[in-house]
Here is the input.
Amino acid sequence: MHAAETVSARLATPATEAGMALDEAGLIRAAQRGDQDAFERLVRAYDHSVLRIALNLLRSPEEARDVYQEAFLKVYRNLHAFRFDCSFHTWLYRIVTNICLDHLRRRKVRKEESTVVQTSEGIVDRVAQLEEEAPHADPERQMWNRELSGRIEGALCALTPRERTVFELRHYEGLRLRAIGEIIGTTEEAAKNCLFRATQKMRVSLEAFI
Here is the structure.
């Protein structure tokens, strides 16, 4: 099966945990030798994480799926170069975040960043939608949450692509600063400084709510 077809198939097929007992290093080495089944097992092991990171960073399901495709194609083409000098998780996240950074930089150039999510059903404010769907939701609280959601998205959009990536990886993915530094190709201290700048900007943007 062609690599693109393999990745596309993963989008249509839910990941399962069955058969994932094999040692990850063994799977990687097998995939490096051309074992297609081993590669597909690696994809299934990380597909949800990759989609989640891309969606958190880009706030667009369509773009997240594009990043998913591109990331695993890059993994397929470059897996032979993986030398186990870092964890596979870090190596993969580095690929995903670099692709997301490219998307965010292009948005900054086009000035097309939106404060809401584009879905197949139209434009949706995800946080506000959750509140509106809740039974007996308080209208005043709904309005407050919609405003807060918009402010948060606006604050995230005002960050540089690098600041936003560090902020999201720390607060949405829960990664440690050392891991974030490895993923974005910098030191733990530099990642810490970047997170500090991002946090300060977010506080200024949201000072009316905190």
The domain at 1-113 is CATH 1.10.1740.10 (Rna Polymerase Sigma Factor; Chain: A).
